[in-house]
Design a protein that fits this description.
Blueprint lengths: L7 E4 L5 H10 L21 E4 L2 H15 L8 E4 L12 H4 L10 H23 L14 H20 L12 H4 L2 H22 L5 H18 L6 E4 L6 H11 L4 E6 L7 H11 L15 H10 L7 E3 L4 H13 L12 H5 L1 H8 L3 E6 L2 H15 L8 E5 L2 H11 L12 E2 L4 H14 L3 H8 L10 H16 L11 H13 L6 H4 L3 H22 L8 E2 H16 L12 H16 L5 E2 L1 H13 L2 E2 L9 E4 L11 E5 L18 H6 L6 H14 L4 E7 L1 E2 L2 E2 L4 H10 L1 H20 L25 E3 L3 H6 L1 H9 L14 H17 L7 H18 L3 H28 L3 E14 L4 E13 L4 E7 L6 H5 L5 H10 L11 E8 L5 E4 L9 H21 L21 H4 L1 H9 L1
Parallel strand pairs: 1-5, 1-6, 2-3, 2-4, 4-5, 7-15, 8-13, 8-14, 14-15, 18-20, 21-22
Antiparallel strand pairs: 9-12, 10-11, 16-17, 19-20, 20-21, 22-23
Helix pairs in contact: 1-2, 4-5, 4-7, 4-24, 5-25, 8-9, 10-11, 12-14, 12-28, 15-16, 15-29, 17-18, 17-25, 18-19, 19-22, 20-22, 22-23, 23-24, 32-33, 33-34, 36-37
């Protein structure tokens, strides 16, 4: 017969929880019939202790070792309540027949199975609702990935209902009229969970993970209740928020050898406030709506379930006056807002200032301007906490994973590498990024996707380390950089060979292309061949008309991943090893074990993978945290530290906003008897209060997140409201030193010497002997750019994802206009217009532009072409008759006095019946302006006129120029004449002046009187940006000259 006398204890937040548990167990306080015998190594072997989390196991073990010392003993069995060891009665037939003791279904398999049911529901839904919602637009899950996203939401509902042990049948008791007609649709959808899902679990002989956990807890409770326990059974640190856990605790509490140790029960809270929490937890009429978010709500609910009065709970550990005052102040600050607490706070109110100073003397507040500053300040604080005693432990606790990752990164400044206990997202690991890179490279026809795969650290492609880097660099330079065409990765080998051939026959190769050796080219071809063979198992199916199962896609993907990662010895050193590799392997194992749940095409498979890995997290492979830890709120429970930082204390981060359930409103959850999501805020509040029991404590928050103002966590707001402005300023002042260190960390103590304006004087023999007409504009405005390109021979490396730009658009439009002129399309007749559009389409097809670029540019050029034909027809009526038209006319003009050549190609030259020539330059933008040409800021047309006069254009016999024109290729084509009635100079004057200026300027350069200075003219109208500005470090010196 079990003893009905319960052993219920509590430990204050400021006491070391597990240390007090161990001491109380050893000295017989927890279980009177048990006392540790140092001379007996097996004395503790019969003890069983349940703790809330896995990290707590190692912490409790460490306390046993620290207290007992070097004695050789068998430690107690320590089990996590969230993952109990399966030691249920093997002879209990009733338990063995329970379906819930079947192996629990894996998380990935559950999502795929639920998604399959959701897609089946979608397929029959239109027929069901057509009559009820004839005019409604239903947003149904279209793709498998949509179904998996919905499956995640549905799985969350299933877990909530199962954890709270509610019946799905209660759904049908809800009043349809009260919730509206759409509730009928939601109810039909939830049949997936209430009916079909349960049937499916039976079919595949699996159990729900939650039901499995509940069944194990129930089995353990039955074992304890029916069998005589051989040693103490203790639950330490649980608040019993899960009904199954509460029942186990109830069984243990009434066992003669059982004991319950509660964390941070507020035994000093006024009785009327405690009664309010108890009534709320019992479901009595909800008057005080903030009770469920109170730190003590879960404990009040548990004590009511255990039928234990608060005054019967015994306290363990000694009272520390200062820390006890802090816990009293926090308790009072967080009282439910609807309660009148004035009569309970007379003593604290009377001595409030003194008590606040006394109890919060070791507490600081960091209020950073942004997340980066907060992370740096926290990292510095953690680093400083390691000074002195090496046995001291420090930690950051935060619910903000981004802040945790920032702090981890900042700690590397000090040579500190620590794990984040809450884990790393799988998609943030090398394996996860490789998977996404592989799928994108196979599916997307662009250089960037392929380059990401090729350059990935895990991608070996069967090469040795010696040749791998050289081969990757060569492939990138030859085939991927500057490639604006779309191409399939399966054609990569032929593309590399084609690019090598093109570069070989290029009359003007770039300097970096000349540095490629034959060995580089051969390695690039070999690597391309290996890449194509590696991804063939996946790529060979991307054009299949039939859909394939996720099981098949998974197998092909794994094969490709291994092909990509094989080194020269066919070893997979990094793919499947370590925790990241094991999690990666588990992902595909679960997909394959799920079988052919879902069929998908290649695009859908990529989306499915993205959804599945988005929820996967890799926990660090360690049960023991170092002296410095970064913890989540769950992992930190009950762990003790000497210095503790509570980071990210902003509303929405900690506590997080309760998530909205897409299928059950809060009213529905209440009517179903489900706890509202506010209870999680109450649990987070309890974590906050427990953590605040650390003597040396730093609260931390940022004033802005993502450049948006933030609001302090509700707990900080309540605390500062209670403490007042002076209290708030004191805490903030203590935190300022950490912020000042953070702000000064990146400030150099040495004065930085800024670069001066480059002004090189290369010798005459090193200076260029040839310039193009178009280069002269840059020569006279930014000589340094010419120096870098033509003397230092530095060519800009093209980008990998070299999307078509304005320059490419201009070249394409020029080429089409040239062809239209050559085909003599100058009349707006239906036949001519049709021919014109055929030419345009043909030119665009040859370019093979990305679709989004092709659509925009082609549509725009149709308008330009129509306008250009009208312009040409009108011009031939109004102007002098054009006898000949020359397009893309080359010219070479020698300037013997300087020993240089001017070369170039004129877009168009018209020979008029007056015997004069008309030089035309096509422009797709608004620059250069007429004024720039007249003032010789851009002397290209003037120099071309001088070339005509000097006979440099060998294809034409004319030596006289009547005008210079810019034809603007816009939807409304127009012509800007450089020489008009407002301009006093003639073409001859302008051309002669441009040539004289050029000769004089080059003489100065050749004589060494004029340097090849960066941006000769810093006035705005001259200052044209250059691709060599970063080399000239223009931002370091330009402001001084501007001033």
């Amino acid at each position: 017969m079990k003893n009905q006398q319960s052993n219920i204890f509590t430990i204050a937040s400021y006491s070391s929880f597990f240390r007090e548990v161990v001491l109380s167990l050893l000295n017989g306080t927890l279980v009177e019939s048990f006392r540790y015998t140092p001379s007996n190594p097996l004395s503790l072997a019969s003890v069983t202790i349940y703790v809330p989390t896995k990290p707590a196991i190692q912490s409790l073990r460490s306390e046993f070792i620290d207290i007992i010392g070097d004695e050789s003993i068998i430690l107690p069995k320590i089990k996590p309540l969230g993952d109990p060891i399966e030691e249920y009665n093997l002879f209990n037939t009733e338990l063995l027949l329970s379906h819930d003791l079947n192996p629990p279904i894996s998380s990935i398999k559950r999502l795929l199975e639920l998604a399959r049911l959701i897609l089946a529901w979608r397929n029959r839904l239109p027929d069901v609702l057509r009559s009820s919602y004839p005019e409604s637009q239903l947003n149904l899950p279209i793709s498998p990935s949509d179904a998996i996203w919905l499956a995640k939401k549905l799985a969350n509902i299933i877990d909530i209902v199962e954890l709270e042990e509610k019946s799905w049948q209660d759904l049908h008791s809800l009043d349809n009229e009260q919730y509206g007609s759409w509730w009928v649709l939601a109810l039909d959808f939830l049949k997936i969970a209430s009916k079909y899902w349960q049937e499916r679990l039976v079919e595949i002989k699996s159990s729900s993970a939650v039901h499995h956990q509940i069944a194990l807890l129930h089995a353990e409770a039955v074992r304890i209740a029916e069998q005589e326990t051989k040693g103490p059974v203790i639950v330490a640190g649980s608040t019993g928020s899960i009904p199954a856990t509460a029942r186990l605790m109830s069984t243990i509490a009434t066992d003669p050898m059982g004991a319950i140790v509660l964390p941070g029960l507020d035994v000093f809270m006024p009785e009327n406030i405690w009664n309010t929490l108890t009534e709320q937890s019992r479901g009595i009429e909800k008057i005080h709506t903030t009770c469920s978010v109170h730190p003590q709500y879960s404990l009040a609910k548990l004590l009511h379930f255990l039928n234990i009065k608060r005054e019967d709970v015994k306290c363990l550990g000694k009272i520390n006056e200062d820390m006890h005052l802090r816990s009293m102040i926090l308790s009072q600050a967080l009282y439910p807002s609807e309660m009148d607490t004035t009569k309970h706070s007379k003593d604290i109110a009377k001595n409030k200032t003194l008590y606040l100073q006394q109890s919060f003397a070791d507490v600081a507040l960091i209020e950073a301007n942004n997340e980066r500053e907060e992370a740096t300040a926290i990292a510095i604080t953690l680093r400083m906490s390691l000074e002195g005693d090496t046995n001291k432990k420090s930690a950051l606790i935060t619910a903000d994973r981004n802040l945790a990752r920032r702090v981890k990164l900042e700690l590397t400044r000090f040579g500190i590498d620590t794990n984040i206990s809450s884990g790393v997202p799988l998609q943030a690991t090398l394996q996860g990024s490789l998977l996404i890179a592989l799928l994108n490279a196979v599916l997307n026809h662009d250089s960037m996707s392929i380059a990401i795969l090729v350059k990935h650290p895990l991608a070996k492609f069967g090469f040795s380390e010696k040749n791998l880097s050289q081969a990757k660099s060569a492939l990138e330079l030859i085939a991927l950089r500057g490639n604006k065409d779309s191409f399939d990765i399966m054609t990569l080998t032929s593309l590399v060979q084609q690019k090598i051939s093109e570069q070989k026959h290029n009359q003007y190769p770039l300097n970096w292309q000349l540095r490629l050796s034959e060995e580089d080219k051969n390695l690039a071809i070999l690597l391309a061949d290996h890449i194509v063979k590696s991804i063939e198992p996946l790529a060979s199916h991307k054009t299949d008309e039939d859909l394939h199962s996720t099981e098949d896609w998974s197998k092909w993907t794994v094969t490709c991943l291994e092909n990509v990662c094989f080194d020269e010895n066919r070893k997979l050193t990094n793919l499947w090893l370590k925790e990241e590799g094991k999690a990666f392997s588990s992902l595909f194992t679960q997909i394959i074990e799920a079988g052919p749940c879902i069929k998908a095409n290649p695009v859908e498979w990529v989306e499915i993978v993205s959804v599945l890995i988005s929820g996967e997290t890799i926990l660090p492979n360690t049960e023991q945290f170092s002296n410095l830890s970064i913890l989540g709120t769950l992992e930190s429970r009950l762990l003790g530290f000497d210095t503790l930082i509570l980071g990210g204390l902003n509303e929405g981060s900690w506590p997080k906003h309760p998530p909205n359930n897409p299928f059950l409103s809060k009213m529905m959850q209440t009517d179903l008897g489900l706890e509202t999501s506010e209870k999680y805020i109450g649990q987070a509040a309890h974590d906050f209060v427990m953590a605040s029991g650390t003597r040396r404590l730093i609260y931390s928050r940022s004033l802005r997140e993502d450049n948006i103002p933030t609001m302090a966590s509700r707990w900080l707001q309540r605390l500062f409201l209670f403490g007042g402005t002076e209290f708030f300023n004191d805490l903030k002042k203590r935190g300022e030193r950490y912020l000042s260190w953070a702000r000064s960390l990146d400030v150099s103590k040495q004065k930085t010497t800024l670069s001066i304006r480059p002004r090189p004087f290369p010798p005459r023999e090193k200076q260029p002997k040839r310039y193009s007409f178009s280069e002269i504009k840059q020569l006279i405005s930014d000589p340094y750019a010419i120096y870098a390109r033509k003397i230092l021979r530095l060519d800009l490396m093209p980008r990998i994802k070299n999307a078509p730009d304005k320059k490419d658009r201009g070249i394409l439009f020029h080429n089409i206009i040239t062809e239209l002129i050559q085909q003599k399309i100058n009349k707006n007749t239906p036949e001519k217009i049709l021919f014109m559009e055929q030419i345009i389409d043909s030119c665009f097809e040859r370019e093979n532009l990305p679709l989004y670029v092709d659509i925009i540019w082609r549509r725009r050029f149709y308008k330009i072409a129509h306008s250009f034909v009208l312009y040409e027809g009108q011009k031939r009526k109004d102007d002098a008759v054009i006898e000949q038209i020359f397009v893309n006319v080359p010219a070479t003009m020698n300037i013997d006095s300087l020993g240089i050549q001017l070369t170039g190609i004129a877009d168009r030259i018209n020979i008029l019946n007056t015997g004069f020539a008309e030089i035309i330059d096509y422009k797709t933008g608004s620059l250069p302006t007429i004024q720039m040409a007249q003032n010789l800021i851009d002397p290209q047309l003037a120099l071309e006129a001088a070339a005509v006069q000097g006979g440099a254009f060998s294809q034409i016999n004319c030596r006289k120029v009547s005008n210079l024109l810019y034809i603007r290729l816009k939807p409304e084509v127009s012509a800007d004449c450089i020489i008009d009635e407002k301009y006093p100079r003639s073409v001859d004057d302008l051309s002669n002046k441009s040539l004289e200026n050029l000769i004089e300027f080059i003489k100065l350069l050749q004589s060494g009187k004029q340097p090849f200075i960066s941006h000769l003219h810093l006035l705005k109208k001259y200052n044209i940006s250059s691709e060599y500005d970063h080399l000239a470090r223009i931002d370091e010196w330009k402001e001084d000259y501007d001033a």
